[in-house]
Amino acid sequence: MGNMACRIFCKMRKNPGSLPALPSCFSNSPAFITARYAHPSPSGLLSMDRWTGVLKVSLGPNHRGPFFKVAASLLLSHSKALIVPSVNAIFFNGDRVEGTGDPVIERLSDSRNIAELLVSKLGSSANAWVVDASTFNGPFAVYKEFIPSVNSRGEPKRYDPNGFPASSSVVTILSKCVEEVKSLISCSVTKQIPTDVHFPASTSPTRPKTIILGFSKGGTVVNQLVTELAYLNTEPARDLMSSEKPSSRLSQEMQDCLCPVSEGGLLFSISEFHYVDAGLNCAGAYLTDRTAIRKIVEHLLLYDASISFTLHGTPRQWCDRHRPWICKEKDILRRLLEDEARRCEGKLKPISKKRNSSRRSNCFAQSARYLLQRPLESSSF
């Protein structure tokens, strides 16, 4: 059974060029709530260090649980100040799969490894965040703070934008992580002005984009964020989606310009959605709400913005005869995007590719190898 991949690329304007790859200079020693520093080679285009570690943060005040485990790989200046990235890649993990004996699966069971992998794929000017669910029922990830309708196994009954729970949770998690990292690297945590961060000398201080990725059950968070983007009030969108230098108002809108600090700031900064082998044991793996997709396209047309939807898949999910709804939902979402492409007179470009392979392997290993081997750039699989 061959590996399959389908990409839907929705584009309103030309994307920036690919970023330089991160040198292979990370150590493999374990770290928990601590820092590791990577030093690019002298020939590198960006003279930066990195902070890489794992944090535990909660949504509630006074460090009250439940806690989210977040792995992060963040840009640092040589003075150990956080640097504004070109993009924040936020990856939502799925159910726990450990103790398999497969080295590929074991490697991707460590969220810190995923963070480093994302940086290697997206370029050395990216920040990467890998979020695990706060609650696990056995192996099942339960993103109850992001999707209030989920059952005890983390399966959603519906995707409801009311209250914007996913975007508000992401904003809180990132904000608390930034403060924690600043504290750990002995930077000020009280000043909330752009002097606490450095901009790369070769770049202008523009607001970073956001890439959202959901692996397996993490795809449910992607669906929820897509729904919230569709139903967000578009009044502030023109300022939030501008590519100009942040004004004083927008500086207040950002956590030191490193990441968004409001639901609108997050949602309108998203440039890419990635479904990475999404799947559930019930309906809801892919969004099939035509109204939501249409509303997003209207936002893009109104504000001359760009966004992409990328569907990555393997036979583990797309060819499972015992869960036929996964492939059906994927096809529905693909058709919805293709329909909107026609409605937008070619400004939305659907691309579908199939990759054949004779390899037969453990189903989770298929997903893990796909994540390791396939690039995430918008130009190709």
Automatic annotation (TrEMBL):
One annotated Gene Ontology cellular component of this protein: mitochondrion
Superkingdom of source: Eukaryota
Any matching Pfam family: C2orf69
Alphabetical list of InterPro entries matching this protein: C2orf69_mit
Protein name: Uncharacterized protein LOC105043734 isoform X1
Record organism: Elaeis guineensis var. tenera (Oil palm)
Organism placement in taxonomy: Eukaryota, Viridiplantae, Streptophyta, Embryophyta, Tracheophyta
